[in-house]
Specification:
The chain is mostly helical and 348 residues long. Helix content is 66%, strand content 0%. The longest helix has 47 residues.
């Protein structure tokens, strides 16, 4: 009997010791999390004061102690983003961009549908030249929904920005084929036209390449014209491409053909605009005025080559970095989004 009591006592003692250790661990973890949250609050104040480097130090300290605090990951990503300088190509700046994206991606593991953060992390990848990461992320999104037109457009625009024009063209064509709305089909084909127009305004293309690029854009616009013969942007851009194509010719007769084609589509554009103006009861724009061929290029595009007419206003090429869903999330509407705004640091 004495031996049995001794065994029971030993078991009870061991159980108590285990409970005490567990309680101590829980209390310790609770204290660590409380300390981390307090440190994050201090970092938030530094962020609000614009002291982003100091804020990063406190966010990092809190996350080293409690890495599961997603709010800390979110706010650290914001602070690093504020320190990042787009267009500055240094190892230090690249490292800041990578840190910001890494914290945002950690946050997205538990908040996969936060579009503002997805917009920011995509923008960071593109602005720091990390195109492969952006393409890998969006390829995962597309793999879950291969017919998602918004994601196809997003991937096409990222490929365009990365200089992968052939892949961008294929994605735009795929998107056009999937669209059921005529206007959406035309827009996808116009995006190809704008991409090729932008390439033609660069001085580094030799004449043979310029002809090939112009032909790709014209072919896409001819499809668009078949779908909507009275689309003014299609006619304006077609005229611009023919004019740019004519500049690459050595043979006089071929140049004359392209110039004649440019004049024809310019004329078609003017007729369409006059018809629209008559319906609206306003005076149509004349060449050289806003809304006519020869006006400034789309936002973000390079200056046009000498003598080249630019696409009509209001039809700028889509910008990469638009807001987007996480893999499996709802896709954005087709079209580019404005530049992201940085949300304030979260405090929960």
């Amino acid at each position: 009997m004495h031996r049995l009591d001794t065994m029971r006592y030993s078991v009870a003692k061991a159980a108590l010791a285990a409970c005490a250790a567990l309680l101590a661990a829980l209390l310790g973890a609770g204290c660590d999390e409380l300390s981390s949250r307090q440190e994050i609050q201090k970092a938030n104040k530094l962020y609000a004061e614009g002291r982003y480097a100091k804020a990063v130090e406190l966010y990092k300290s809190a996350l080293d102690r409690t890495p599961t605090l997603t709010i800390g990951q979110h706010n650290a990503g914001l602070a690093y983003y504020k320190l990042f300088q787009p267009g500055v190509e240094t190892k230090e700046n690249r490292a800041i961009a990578e840190q910001s994206a890494a914290h945002f991606m950690k946050y997205l593991e538990t908040n996969p549908n936060d579009r503002k953060v997805i917009t920011l992390v995509t923008t960071i990848w593109l602005d720091s030249g990390q195109f492969d990461k952006a393409l890998n992320y969006w390829s995962q999104v597309l793999a879950k929904d291969p017919q998602n037109r918004g994601v196809l457009e997003k991937l096409a625009n990222i490929n365009r920005q990365a200089g992968r024009f052939e892949e961008a063209r294929k994605l735009h064509l795929q998107r056009s084929d999937l669209e059921t709305d005529r206007g959406a089909k035309v827009k996808a084909l116009l995006d190809i036209g704008y991409m090729e127009w932008s390439r033609l305004t660069k001085p580094d293309l030799i004449d043979v390449d310029r002809l090939a690029v112009a032909d790709i854009g014209i072919a896409a616009l001819q499809k668009a014209e078949t779908l909507d013969p009275k689309h003014d942007a299609v006619q304006s851009l077609m005229a611009s491409l023919y004019l740019l194509r004519s500049l690459a010719h050595g043979a006089f007769w071929a140049k004359c053909v392209d110039v004649a084609s440019e004049k024809y589509h310019h004329s078609r554009f003017s007729e369409i605009k006059k018809g629209q103006a008559a319906g609206a009861g306003v005076t149509p724009a004349k060449p050289g005025q806003p809304g006519a061929p020869g006006q400034p290029a789309p936002a973000g595009a390079a200056p046009a080559a000498a003598g080249a007419a630019a696409p009509a206003p209001g039809a700028a090429a889509p910008a990469a970095g638009a807001a987007a869903p996480a893999p499996g999330a709802e896709a954005p509407a087709a079209g580019a989004a404005p530049a992201p705004t940085t949300p304030p640091p979260a405090s929960k």
